[in-house]
Amino acid sequence: MEIRTAEESKEHIQNFSKELLKLLAHKKTIDEEIKEMKANYKEDGVPVSIVTKVLNKIKANKKKSPSEQTEEHIIEEWLENNKEIDDMITSLIAK
After folding, report:
1. What's 64's DSSP letter?
2. In sequence order, what DSSP letters do the residues of 15-62 get, joined into one string?
């Protein structure tokens, strides 16, 4: 571990803080642009929330290993094909 003087530590903390705040401000701008873009497409009839959900699911699946995907698929099939579990899920989502 490198030993720093109080002044060096203070400078590093300040530099880190400034850089972080600049990036957070940039992120805020991007988030606002995304929100506006989604609103525009929603006005044009695009099912924005569904498309976003699908894209997030695709992205999450790409992060998984093939063995993890296979394991999830097998478990999903087991659960979906179990009548008792299916009935329990149906009762949970009933309005």
Report:
1. S
2. HHHHHHHHHHHHHHHHHHHHHHHHHHHHHTT--HHHHHHHHHHHHHHH
